[in-house]
Structure formats: C-alpha cells, structure tokens
Amino acid sequence: MEWPSAAFAQPDSPIVIGVLGTDPFGSVLDRLVQDKKIGQRGFVVRRYKWGKDLKDLKDLRDCKILFVSASEKAHADEIIQLVKWLPILTVGETPGFAERGGVIRLRWRTTECALRSMWTPRIRQT
C-alpha cells in the first residue's frame, strides 16, 4: 500500500493506525508495530471514540489506516462517507463493511483472522 507523498506533512511523518471503537487488539497492535518502519516512516497507534471531533475530521487528519470496530456498526456508513476521499485505508469487521464502501473487511475466526478485501472505485493508483 502506498500513499501519495502529499498525504503526509513531512517525509518522516509516521503512518498512523487508528482504532475506532472497542479495541479487539489491545496492546498486541502496539507491540507489532513498535520500532517498525517503512522507509523513514515509523508507526503510531491511536484509539478513537465516536464524537464531534471525529465527525469534524480533526482527529483523523493524520490517520492512514482506520480500523472500524464492530462496536461502531451504527456509525459505519457515516464514517465511510466522512473519509472516502481522504488517503485513509478503511478496515472493518462487520458483515457488509467492504460492500458499503470500506476497503477491507476482517473476518475473525477462533485464533486467526481471514482477510477479505473489496477494492472500491475510489482507490486509485498514483
């Protein structure tokens, strides 16, 4: 996955992974990306709650990967619409997430995660 250079404030700006709603990853995600880099970019994990700042996109400005938890199912359509023209890879776990405009839907199994993606027309190569 590549983002346009204009998606980042600086050449070494981190890749921000956002978790919106109930976090199924806990500290595992933080440990997974700790000290990892792609080129000059490290990773930062941020947790978000649904609210006014999120609706105004204030908190999501720097986010590049947004995981939308099943706890946010009631807001999923609105979230997808808010970020659909931003350089944010949306990942969700609710049935129909990709069909509703999200980019990747995760399907949980007992000890593994099956990845199913549907590339929507808004994804363009740069």
Task: Itemize the secondary structure elements and their pairings.
Elements: E1 15-20, H1 27-33, E2 43-48, H2 52-55, E3 63-68, H3 76-83, E4 89-92, E5 104-108, E6 113-117
Describe it:
The chain has helices spanning 27-33, 52-55, 76-83, and strands at 15-20, 43-48, 63-68, 89-92, 104-108, 113-117. Helix 1 (27-33) links the parallel strand 1 and strand 2. It has 126 residues and is an alpha/beta fold. It has 3 helices and 6 strands. A 6-stranded mixed β-sheet has the order 2-1-3-4-5-6, with helices on both faces. The model is unreliable at 111-126 (pLDDT under 50).
Short description:
With 126 residues, the chain is of the alpha/beta class.
| Total number of helices | 3
> Overall 3D geometry?
globular
Which percent band covers the strand fraction? 25-35%
Radius of gyration: 14 Å
What are the segments in which pLDDT stays under 50 over at least 5 consecutive residues? 111-126
First-to-last CA distance: 11 Å
Structural class: alpha/beta
Main sheet specs: 6 strands, mixed
The run of helices and strands is EHEHEHEEE
Strand order of the largest sheet: 2-1-3-4-5-6
Helix content: 10-25%
| Overall pLDDT metric | 82
According to DSSP, the number of beta strands is 6
List the defining traits of the structure above.
126 residues, disordered C terminus, 6-stranded mixed beta sheet, alpha/beta, globular, 25% strand
